[in-house]
């Protein structure tokens, strides 16, 4: 069955389609009720099914005779450490840490907050929570104390699990002082903190509250998985919202397990024993879905990488990992490859490594611009698959299918995240809620019901699910992105709907302008935002980062870039404000902070997101952007 046939069946008869896909899961109790509606008028999947996500990720594979297979590889260029864990070894460690948590009176339905760097203990803590039916909430290690306190108050964890420090390229960040300050600020007080001591920093433990990870593991026993309902929450993951209150996306166990196994098979083409590397962080949804749960549930080998795409030690870092561990598919954000391309524009590092095992590259997290797509395609000679999804969905909404019906992969298109994945009924609507013709831009929405694995609710605020996602177009989930679907059914995401600007009555996509700018051979990455203009309402402003080794003057480059905008889009999009800068402010996942840029330019109070990769870049940009309104 090819993708179009699967899509037709999934839309016409979602219950029968997902009933069949649910057979991928080793349920404790197989579900009979496939799709239903709960008290919040939101749909639920497999309500009478019972399972355990940790069992599916670990014990099941040991039972199937894969206990000696490597489940998890830890590679840390920032410390020089490398470790490998078989499925049997990882199961033992997780079963013991589950006992450590249980001894803190943590049980099914309780919350545990995990504040960890990219080390194996982060995966062990997550899976141990799942083993007990405990809801975990992973917060990036190194988050500011105030942001951590906000999440402590919302999730109300019984226990915090952390490490003594995290390690960036050139600095060590002690975590314990941040945790202590956050607990002091928080209204809710966790019962205990379990701290994994790293050799770079020894944390000071507070008596009667803090426990040493290894000391507790030394006296722990292995405990079995606990059966949970399909609709019981697996985790809470906080994502950005339009208000100051954190938005906790809740993922269920059953629908999530089905979606993970389904996507690993049908989107990524992975088989048990394959090595799948999601070069992300466990603090992001990608880390939850495809470093931990999806990859291990599929019986694959996963990689936890504590490093960067560049400078740990160089722009060949990703290729080294792929070659060393014979990675079959690599999944990361476009910004990682833009950084690599900036440092190594000719792709010279690729020649140093045997990448014969690497079959495909997957990119998500932000729009993959055609220039980066074409650069990767040329340099690697691999299929480059841009796919689109959100924290809320937990897995891909659109992706180029691996099978076109003849056993070959469908053609990828530059700038497109591919056709909708089977199960997602993606449509483009205008401001009146009417479908627009092929090729015309509008609001990207998904007709309900969403497939399994998508958000179950917003933690402690189900009304926010309705107001934030369902009220704009009744019967549809609002993605918040704008774009179009072409005549072949390929989806093009052009950016957030608030990234469409109105210049003298003309609606212009900043994504289109970025596409034009990034096509210039000197440009490494760029951002275009709209700024207020008394005459035209809004005007575009462009910020451009140049590749290493470019000798053309900044003045000449600015002139060329402005002309390319006029030629490609028209005089109405005249990019009078165009600046060449050293770097852009981004989140840890590589998303450019356009809202923050707009606030800086307009002289508003800057709301620096807690997810920012390096707040120093804000300081660097302030002087440049402060002069814009004076010119």
Features:
GMP Synthetase, Chain A, domain 3; Rossmann fold; seven-stranded mixed beta sheet; 24% strand; globular; 631 residues; single chain; alpha/beta
The dominant shape is globular
Instruction: Give me the Rg, rounded.
Output: 24 Å
Mean pLDDT rating: 91
Highest-level CATH class of the largest domain: Alpha Beta
Put simply, the count of helices is 18
CATH homologous superfamily caption of the largest domain: ANL, N-terminal domain
- Residue stretches low in confidence (pLDDT < 50, at least 5 long) are none
Percent of residues in beta strands: 15-25%
Order of strands in the sheet with most strands: 5-4-17-16-18-19-20
What is the CATH-assigned architecture of the largest domain?
A: 3-Layer(aba) Sandwich
Helix content: 25-40%
How many separate domains make up the residues? 2
Protein described:
The protein is of the alpha/beta class and 631 residues long. The protein has two domains: 3-307 and 387-483, Rossmann fold, CATH 3.40.50; 504-630, GMP Synthetase, Chain A, domain 3. Helix content is 30%, strand content 24%. The chain is built from 18 helices and 30 strands. Strand 28 (523-533) and strand 29 form a beta hairpin. Helix 3 crosses helix 5, helix 4 packs across helix 5 and helix 9 packs across helix 10. The longest helix is centred in the N-terminal third of the chain and has 16 residues, at 87-102.
């Amino acid at each position: 069955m090819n993708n179009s046939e699967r899509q037709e069946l999934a839309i016409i008869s979602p219950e029968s389609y997902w009933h069949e896909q649910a057979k991928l899961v080793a349920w404790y109790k197989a579900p009979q009720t496939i799709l239903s509606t709960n008290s919040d008028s939101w749909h639920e999947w497999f309500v009478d099914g019972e399972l355990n996500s940790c069992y599916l990720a670990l014990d099941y594979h040991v039972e199937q005779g894969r206990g000696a297979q490597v489940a998890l590889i830890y590679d840390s260029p920032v410390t020089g450490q490398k470790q490998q864990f078989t499925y049997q070894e990882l199961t033992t460690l997780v079963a013991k840490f589950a006992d450590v948590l249980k001894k803190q009176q943590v049980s099914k339905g309780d919350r545990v907050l995990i504040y960890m760097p990219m080390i194996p203990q982060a995966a062990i803590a997550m899976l141990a929570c799942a083993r007990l039916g405990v809801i975990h909430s992973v917060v990036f290690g190194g988050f500011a104390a105030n942001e951590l306190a906000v999440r402590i108050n919302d999730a109300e964890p019984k226990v915090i699990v952390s490490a003594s420090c995290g390690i960036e390229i050139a600095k060590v960040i002690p975590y314990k002082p941040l945790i202590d300050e956050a607990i002091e600020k928080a209204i809710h007080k966790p019962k205990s903190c379990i701290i994994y001591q790293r050799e770079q920093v020894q944390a000071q433990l507070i008596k009667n509250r803090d426990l040493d990870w290894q000391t507790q593991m030394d006296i722990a026993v292995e405990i079995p998985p606990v059966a949970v309902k399909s609709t019981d929450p697996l985790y809470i993951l906080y994502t950005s919202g339009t208000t100051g209150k954190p938005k906790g996306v809740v993922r269920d166990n059953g629908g999530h397990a089905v979606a993970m196994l389904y996507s690993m098979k049908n989107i990524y083409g992975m088989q048990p024993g394959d090595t799948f590397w999601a070069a992300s962080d466990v603090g992001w949804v990608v880390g939850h879905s495809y470093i931990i749960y999806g990859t291990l549930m599929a019986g694959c080998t996963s990689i936890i990488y504590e490093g960067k795409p560049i400078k740990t030690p160089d722009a060949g870092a990703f290729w080294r990992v792929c070659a060393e561990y014979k990675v079959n598919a690599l999944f990361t954000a476009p910004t990682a490859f833009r950084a690599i391309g900036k440092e190594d524009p000719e792709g010279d590092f690729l020649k140093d490594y045997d990448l014969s095992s690497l079959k495909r590259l997957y990119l998500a997290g932000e729009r993959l611009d055609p220039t980066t797509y074409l650069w990767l395609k040329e340099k690697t000679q691999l299929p480059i698959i841009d796919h689109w999804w959100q924290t809320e969905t937990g897995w891909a909404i659109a992706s180029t299918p691996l099978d076109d019906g003849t056993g070959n992969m469908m053609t990828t298109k530059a700038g497109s995240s591919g056709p909708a994945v089977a199960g997602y009924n993606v449509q483009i609507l205008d401001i009146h809620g009417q479908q627009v013709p092929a090729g015309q831009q509008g609001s990207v929405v998904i007709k309900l019901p969403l497939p399994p694995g998508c958000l179950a609710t917003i933690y402690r605020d189900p009304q926010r699910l309705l107001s934030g996602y369902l009220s704009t177009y009744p019967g549809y989930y609002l993605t918040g992105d704008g774009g179009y679907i072409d005549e072949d059914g390929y989806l093009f995401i052009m950016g957030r709907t608030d990234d469409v600007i109105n210049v003298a009555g003309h609606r212009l996509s900043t994504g289109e302008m970025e596409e034009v700018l990034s096509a210039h051979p000197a440009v490494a990455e760029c951002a275009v935002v709209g700024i207020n203009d008394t005459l035209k309402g809004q005007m575009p402003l462009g910020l451009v980062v140049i590749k290493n080794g470019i000798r053309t003057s900044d003045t000449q480059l600015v002139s060329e870039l402005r002309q390319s905008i006029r030629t490609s889009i028209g005089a109405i999009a005249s990019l009078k404000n165009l600046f060449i800068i050293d770097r852009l402010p981004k989140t840890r996942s590589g998303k450019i902070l356009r809202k923050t840029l707009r606030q800086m330019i307009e002289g508003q109070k800057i709301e620096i997101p807690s997810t920012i990769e390096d707040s120093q870049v804000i300081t660097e940009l302030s002087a440049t952007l402060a002069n814009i309104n004076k010119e």
